[in-house]
Amino acid sequence: MQLYIKNMVCNRCIMAVRTELEAIKAPVKSIELGEVTIDGDLSASQLQQLEESLTRLGFEIINDKRSRLIEQIKNEIIALVHHSGEVLSQNLSFWLAEKMHYDYTYLSNLFSDIEGTTIEKYYIAQRIEKVKELLVYDEMSLSEIADKMGYSSAAYLSSQFKKITGFTPTHYKSIKETKRKKIDEL
């Protein structure tokens, strides 16, 4: 049995979902961002209990195919930007189409229709959030951050950062009480 779960964005989310699955004694095969594989099926009462406990934690079981695809797109981008350390050596469109096994035009139109923004803008927003995190840590120069995040130059990173946030990276870094957005709120 496959379950698709909305708002799983990090390893702590995986642990929280695992805990809820263990509480209902579900035989878990694997858990990844947004996706759970269970050995066998859950009873109606187990599924209801799971849905209620996940909702309390801010998660949601996704039942329709279109919403699952959107969540998978988001999870692939989040994993790429925040967890893999990988820098794309190809276009985002080609990478995502290959990952998802769908035509990019279909994915792009679906994403835009449901989310009201483009996949590219979502990807940029995730990258900028990661840049904010790296700026706050204050362990790397802007050039090092640009290189790590796959920007062609620190100047291009600064330009995109200012366009999205309204601040230069240096000014952002100097603001002590900057509140970052949660990944799932982008």
TrEMBL record:
SUPFAM superfamilies: HMA, heavy metal-associated domain, Homeodomain-like. Keywords: DNA-binding, Transcription, Transcription regulation. The keyword Transcription applies. The keyword Secreted does not apply. Residues 96-175 form the HTH araC/xylS-type domain. Pfam families: HTH_18. SMART domains: HTH_ARAC. One of its GO terms (molecular function) is metal ion binding. This is AraC family transcriptional regulator. It comes from Flavobacterium beibuense F44-8.
